[in-house]
Design goal:
248 residues, alpha+beta, Beta-lactamase, five-stranded antiparallel sheet
Length: 248
């Protein structure tokens, strides 16, 4: 109960009125950094952790890097049935709705195939000097996809330079027309479109990772990048990340 009260107070009071007690964050691994990537505060920031669907930021980046046709129609065995989506739509589905079939398809249609896509993901983090970040699949369902809160600060900064990532961070829902029917896919970050100016936002959850989110947003103190790993569940990750961003 005290945990819930603390979150409510933090989300409804002004910065000057709240002295945030970091013990009320259930996430065991988190960090907040300024616009230059300088770490302001954090906990267990160099601990290697499973990152779940935060993986999809890198999936999107390597697909964009490959300069493939964004309008190309691709067949996808989606949960809604066998559908055709453009590559651009698949990127938005992967980033906005954290759609695993979309992320998987992006790598399957990558030049030279799925394995080459994952190799490109790992090559990119190596080039960035992120020695603790590793990928085994495109979705984040593989618990071996790992990083650290510190390294994800850098990854988010790089992803902020990609237009599809920026678009996803401003998109409350994706609407895709298939024949006469519209499919609506909501953003897994429900506060997008309600408050804050997001630059990057990607959630994640699998049992091994707990509730996760990597985000960059504007606050009244400037741009803040927040990484939360190992939050209690999918309901706690966003209030905690928002609380951290607004408190620093």
């Amino acid at each position: 109960m005290r945990y819930l009260i603390a979150l409510v107070l933090g989300l409804t009071c002004t910065m000057s009125a709240v002295a945030f007690d970091w013990r009320h964050v259930s996430a065991e691994y988190w960090v907040v950094a300024d616009s230059e990537g300088k770490i302001i505060q954090g906990e267990n920031i160099d601990q290697v952790r499973s990152i779940a669907s935060i993986t999809k930021l890198m999936t999107a980046m390597v697909v964009v890097d490959a300069a493939q046709d964004m309008d190309e129609s691709l067949a996808v065995n989606h949960r809604t049935g066998l559908r055709r989506f453009s590559r651009s739509e698949l990127i938005q589905l992967a980033l906005v709705h954290s759609d695993n079939a979309a992320a998987d398809a992006l790598c399957r249609y990558y030049p030279a195939g799925y394995d080459a896509c994952v190799e490109a993901m790992n090559a990119k983090v190596q080039a960035l000097g992120l020695t603790h970040t590793k990928y085994y699949d495109a979705t984040g369902l593989d618990a071996r996809n790992v990083s650290t809160a510190r390294e994800l600060i850098r990854l988010v900064a790089v992803s902020s330079g990609y237009a599809p990532v920026n678009l996803a961070a401003k998109t409350p829902q994706v609407k895709i027309q298939l024949r006469k029917k519209w499919l609506i896919f909501k953003n897994t970050n429900p506060i997008i479109g309600q408050r804050h100016e997001f630059i990057v936002s990607k959630t994640g959850y699998i049992k091994a990772a707990g509730g996760c989110i990597a985000m960059m947003l504007n606050t009244d103190k400037g741009i803040r990048t927040v990484i939360v790993l190992g939050s209690r569940n999918t309901h706690t990750r966003i209030p905690e990340a928002e609380f951290i961003a607004e408190s620093q």
